[in-house]
Design a protein that fits this description.
single chain; mainly alpha; globular
């Protein structure tokens, strides 16, 4: 039997995923132990440019949409621009999460590490919800998917190369503009490993959530 999924319920789940992902980036960044690989470069720029992490994320991710346009050219589907409202909402929830997390700044390294792990868990849950809803995706993931399909490369391989490139770019920018390493620390490595593992762990229980999406 073919199952039909409610578009309204999928949008609700996708929106919840955006909230979780945005808060996850904020809570994994606020302790000062680094941030997720894809957020590392936007985060480092906030030490140089007077903009928020959400604003930096929006501006830099717009570049990824433009890169998709450059790669696809005439085959660029305008529906891909649906990534933009998703991006603006994501940036808003990142800044909202940064504001919330500013009310409590743990001093001990242990508590900062726990908060970083909590942020990774929130981010992984948000991504898992977005994947399940299958409405849209973030421009970074859109660029990875476009490059993977266009050049016939495994998605996972392109994802790894993309994440490594973002970290290298963040480190290079920090060393050149700040004369030292800022924003890239052990939390960046933790997020790179932990987020993917949590998403895999969430796949089985999310089958029950998927039932909620059936009309």
């Amino acid at each position: 039997m073919t199952r039909r999924y409610s578009k309204r319920k999928r949008f609700i789940l996708f929106f919840i995923g955006l909230i979780f992902a945005g808060l996850g980036v904020a809570f994994s960044t606020r302790p000062g132990l680094g941030t997720s690989p894809i957020s590392s470069f936007p985060y480092v720029t906030t030490f140089v440019v007077s903009w928020t992490l959400g604003m930096a994320t929006i501006i830099i991710n717009i570049v990824f949409v433009l890169l998709q346009f450059i790669i696809l050219r005439k085959r660029f589907r305008w529906v891909l621009l649906a990534q933009l409202p998703t991006l603006f909402a994501f940036g808003f929830f990142i800044d909202f999460g940064m504001w919330i997390s500013s009310f409590y700044l743990p001093e001990s390294y242990f508590l900062r590490f726990i908060e970083t792990m909590f942020g990774c868990a929130l981010l992984a849950t948000g991504i898992a919800f977005q994947l399940l809803a299958n409405i849209s995706y973030m421009p970074g993931d859109g660029f990875i998917r476009t490059a993977s399909e266009e050049y016939n490369l495994p998605f996972g391989t392109v994802k790894i190369c993309f994440d490594v490139s973002m970290v290298v770019l963040a480190v290079s920018f920090s060393l050149v503009c700040l004369q030292g390493l800022h924003g890239v620390r052990e939390g960046t490595i933790l997020a790179a490993v932990l987020v993917g593992l949590i998403i895999k762990r969430l796949q089985p229980p999310l089958r029950y959530v998927k039932r909620f999406l059936i009309k």
